[in-house]
Design brief:
Shape: globular
Mean pLDDT: 93
Bound molecules: S-adenosyl-L-homocysteine, iron/sulfur cluster
Strand order of the largest sheet: 3-4-5-6-9-10-11-12-13-14
Radius of gyration: 21 Å
Largest sheet: 10 strands, mixed
Strand content: 15-25%
Oligomer: single chain
């Protein structure tokens, strides 16, 4: 796509209205265009018949409508589908659909790779190349929608490749469209942003959005978390949890979800469980235990199901709602943490540099 031309996908309603006003048009044109794009999956300006021919012409000089291209699709035995989408320069990102009883969850990527360097994560091992544009995030939803035939996506989670809060602007734009009635009309509780714990960006998110927040905790003491989630060296647990409770209050959310990957012999003892319970008991918190999913070259092993159960019991006894996440789609490497895509020109971003602010104004 010509870089000087804007992609119409991914532009939230307010920005679209301003664009039409700049063109000397009425703001309601934004509604019309969004209905075509997201309501009717019409991606050709020429087919938007309630816009005048002259307006369609003017629009085509200013904008393009570009959907991501599918490079490959894989279907798992359990109904999970993974798409590999081209991301330019020979790179690829991945998007996963997870059908469940009564709902369908789409897991979208927010970056080509990830710079956060968590050692148990296949994406982290790939390194980081670039942020995705809002159009490329919304594009994943549109592609999945088209492939699935009917509207089977009831939930969207930013749990694919990348750290969504390191790409805050595009993630907020895409979330706005997901929850907009003129977009996908999802309830804000059905759009979840998962973060490794970028504290300033969680504060900013509370100002810009009110979608559900999930936090990848993975350890209940700073020593261990520094190793498993290196961003903890900059924003330790106490600071992170404070901002989580602020987020819950500011957005009137019932709870924050804490993700905890179960790594055999690393973070899965009953002592660890008690530490975790102490941090989260009597707080607006729920816990998702994620059995570790392996990938080529991984240095960790999955905790046994008995260990996971024992760990869970400690949390349940402390009154915390704790769910063990089912492993889905692992026969096609589509489970949590297995998304690798294809990432080139890896940019190593040492902790302490300010890259996270680039997308966060
Ligand atoms: N970058 C964001 C969101 C993407 S990862 C984040 O880290 O929160 C979605 C979830 O999968 C996170 O909780 C992540 O820690 C977890 N995860 C990463 N690698 C995993 C693995 N190999 N097995 C199980 N879960 C993993
Ligand atoms: Fe990035 Fe999340 Fe993987 Fe950590 S777990 S490397 S933050 S994608």
């Amino acid at each position: 796509m010509d870089n000087s031309t804007v992609n119409l996908l991914g532009i939230p309603q307010g920005d679209l209205e301003r664009m039409f006003v700049d063109m000397g048009e009425k703001p309601f044109r934004a509604r019309q265009v969004m209905q075509w794009l997201y309501g009717r999956s019409v991606f050709e300006l020429d087919h938007m018949t309630n816009l005048s021919v002259a307006l369609r012409q003017e629009l085509s000089d200013r904008v393009q409508i570009v959907l991501p291209e599918i490079q490959a699709r894989e279907d798992a035995a359990d109904g999970v589908i993974k798409w590999r989408l081209r991301a330019g320069g020979g790179q690829a990102i991945e998007t996963v659909f997870i059908p469940e009883e009564g709902r369908g969850t789409l897991c979208v990527s927010s970056q080509v790779g990830c710079a956060m360097d968590c050692p148990f994560c296949a994406t982290g091992r790939q390194g980081f190349n670039r942020n995705l544009a809002a159009a490329e995030i919304i594009g994943q939803v549109l592609i999945a929608n088209r492939e699935l035939g009917t509207r089977r996506i009831s939930n969207v989670v930013f749990m694919g490749m990348g750290e969504p809060l390191a790409n805050l602007r595009a993630v907020v734009q895409a979330s706005d469209i997901l929850v907009d009635d003129l977009g996908f009309g999802l309830s804000r509780r059905r759009v979840t942003v998962s973060t490794s714990g970028l504290v300033p960006q969680i504060k900013r998110l509370a100002e810009l959005s009110n979608v559900a927040l999930a936090v990848s905790l993975h350890a209940a003491n700073d020593e261990l978390r520094n190793e498993l989630v290196p961003i903890n060296r900059r924003h330790p647990i106490a600071e992170l949890l404070d901002v989580c409770w602020e987020y819950a209050e500011a957005t009137r959310s019932k709870e924050i979800t804490f993700e905890y990957v179960m790594l055999a012999g690393v973070n899965d003892s009953e002592t660890h469980a008690r530490q975790l319970a102490k941090l989260l008991a009597r707080r607006p918190a729920k816990i998702n235990l994620i059995p570790f999913n392996t990938f080529p070259g991984a240095d960790y092993q999955r905790s046994s199901s008995e260990t996971v159960d024992r760990f869970r019991q400690v949390l349940v006894r402390a009154g915390i709602i704790t769910i063990t996440r089912k492993t889905r789609g692992d026969d096609i490497s589509a489970a949590c943490g297995q998304l690798a895509g294809l990432v080139n020109n890896r940019v190593r971003v040492p902790l302490g540099t300010k890259m996270h602010h680039s997308g966060a104004q």
